Batch of 2 targets.
Target 1
Amino acid sequence: MEYNTQHFVRKLKAMGITLTDEQVQQFITYYEMLVEKNKVMNLTGITEFDEVLEKHFEDSLSLIRVVDLNHNLKIMDLGTGAGFPGIPLKIAFPNLKITLADSLNKRILFLQEVIDELQLKDIAAIHGRAEDLARDAAYREQYDLCVSRAVANLSTLAEYCLPFVKIGGRFVSYKSGECDEEVQDAKSSVFLLGGKVKDVTKFELGDAKRSFIAIEKVAGTSKKYPRKAGVPSKTPLK
């Protein structure tokens, strides 16, 4: 099947991302695998090619607005789901070292298929809950950057994500709509976890309002965080 990727390629170029023909083909293959697997398991509600390019791929890569992705960063993508933002980031920036983490094993099996098919290197897909993985010395405070497109309260996300980030690193949350009040409400819990809200970057993606909340890790996270499975989402820190 023929796909028109010119608009996508142009928009990425305007953000400072230049794709090779091979990388464009990797995005097409990823799209085809995504919609095929979506027939038997729920990965995305968006399946039209142009929409996936904009709302999943371009959105994932918009991280370049707040992070210099040309450095050899070690990144944790927590609650990756169908592989966003981690796999688009890896395709466009092969220099990145990425861990994809998700609590649903069948998603991880799909992501491993994608990694193998696209022949991606320095990327791992791991199954586990954030509450458990963050207590594992192999992952705790080992990352330059933790990213998440997961839909959750910022205090909850910070409790899940900040334990993975080394001091001096960052946690960046992808958000839709307005988030100013959410950021204000989360400041004390972010501080409790060793973080500090650095900035909020707002932008438009098509007709959607999007934001990046960047939190810097300024101190080690206490060993009591994250709390037991389910607690951070049921009872967010204040």
Target 2
Amino acid sequence: MGVQVETFGEALRRLRLAAGFSQADLARAAAWSQSQVSRAEGNRFTPDESTIARLDQLVRADGALVAAHLMSTSNGSGAPVNATDKTPWAISDIMRQIHRTDVGGETIDQLTAITEELCCEYAWRNAEDLRRDAQAQLEYVGRLLSGPSTLREHRDLMVIAGWLTLLIGCVDYDLGLPRHAESARIAASQLGRESGHGEIVAWSFEMSAWFALTQDRYRSVSEYTEAGSKAAPNSSVVVQLAAQAAKAQARMGNKAEVSRILDEGHRLLGEHENPSRPENHFVIDPAKWDFYAMDCYRLVGEHGRASEHAHEVLRLSRKPDGSERSPMRASEARLTLAVAALESGDVEGAAAWARQAFSAERKSVTHLSMLADELTERLHHVMAGDPGARPLEDELAAFRATLPSR
């Protein structure tokens, strides 16, 4: 008499629940539909052996699901049968399929390292070149995701894809492509949620806050920063979110709230260790705080304090050989000094600072456009109708002539 065992469907349901998967989770990971998972668990459908091997791998069954299939009837009834009815080497063949993968730990490590390097190049590299390489890397990760991989590898690949998509979105926005950037941001948020990576989700909200700031939607910023902080409360991204919240308050003229948020952000910064790769765009390091404070103090009219922070930003951006490790930050620092010079009546000095800022090869077009508008507004306020404003007006006009058509 045969040994009574659970049916394939019963085994699939038990192992799925033990792995912490919903039917939808397993369907997504296995490139199935949820109805197929439901039918298989109800013994109304039996997948082929290669799919069973894939399912066994995804739920970390170590061959138990394959064994359940071998011990079940081949007619779909789900009734238990004698295990000796199957050939003795069949399970060995399927076990080899279970451990088959086109990825491997070494590939994951290499992809992780390359992705971090690309994120570190964001601050200085030509935007179009960086986007091309990040897109190529993302396409390669996508091909790996469509092939055989372990459950851990599948998640790791989704996390890598999430970081790459965030990076592409940031570069697209720098290039003046807001629709492309928003599409990438949404995709990154989805990848973060599906892989259970709260930090990627939080950075997608940070991007929303950044977009809102540059589109004059200041009141929306707090909604995004709060959502981002909830997604990854223990990550350093909360410092960046605080900075964006402070900038929004500064643009609305809420000076007291700016000071409160900056103090809170500085406290949060102190709770995190210095990163090993501070140049990574998605890592917050103490050197960035001068950059955040500079922007806020300029906006609330404290030009002396803003200038102090701007000079510190320039100092920190300068490499020993005189080149700049953070040209976009340096450009914003120079525009901050241009505003301060203008407020003190030094139009020639303001024009010189603006010329340097606008001539940088690596720039965020969207952000510099916003700062150029701010400088123009201050110029009209301070020197309305004054012929002496011409040098700065010429620099602003020359910059706008380089902007992509909308």
